[in-house]
Amino acid sequence: MKVYFCGSIRGGREDAHVYRRIVQKLQSYGSVLTEHVSCSEISEKGEDAVGGDRAIHDRDVRWLRECDVVVAEVTQPSLGVGYELGRAVTMETKVLCLFRPASGRSLSAMIRGAEDSDRFVVKDYKEDEVENVLEEFFNRLKNQKKARGEPEENLNICI
Ligand SMILES: O=c1[nH]c(=O)n([C@H]2C[C@H](O)[C@@H](COP(=O)(O)O)O2)cc1CO
Hints:
Elements (H helix, E strand, L loop, with lengths): L1 E5 L9 H11 L4 E2 L19 H15 L2 E5 L5 H12 L3 E6 L9 H4 L7 E5 L5 H18 L12
Parallel strand pairs: 1-2, 1-3, 3-4, 4-5
The structure holds 5-hydroxymethyluridine-2'-deoxy-5'-monophosphate.
The site of 5-hydroxymethyluridine-2'-deoxy-5'-monophosphate (5HU) has 17 residues, from helix 2 and helix 3.
GO biological process, one term: nucleoside metabolic process
GO cellular component, one term: cytoplasm
Pfam families: Nuc_deoxyrib_tr
């Protein structure tokens, strides 16, 4: 299974340690295409990519098309993450958004209001619960897949 992880880069790197924790857990489910988002070496300046921002955008949109599921940490507001989520909705890819109310922030209505408890799931959580929240989500996906009689090794969760 291919997972696309979204987290803030130019929007601010305050939550990079949480992204690391999420990506570590996601790697137990499959390959994380955007592992770099969780790297402590990536600053608010973003990646120093050959081809610049165009190359970053085109690669990420290609990965979005390729992935089976999108997981986004949305506590730190980020234009790029919002854009990725909008593109994922259009592609009809399954999305999990994770938000920490303890931050004192209020999640955008365009994310919270997109929740449909199926294809677009928004979950409030506390940092120490993150592995359990992911486990619950991926177990549910597995069960949905089983119910549809899909083969175990191809966890394609675009419903
Ligand atoms: O250098 C980058 N590399 C990259 O992959 N992104 C993608 C992945 C992140 O989920 C998202 C972050 O967007 P932003 O930088 O606007 O916070 O955009 C964003 C940047 C910088 O904008």
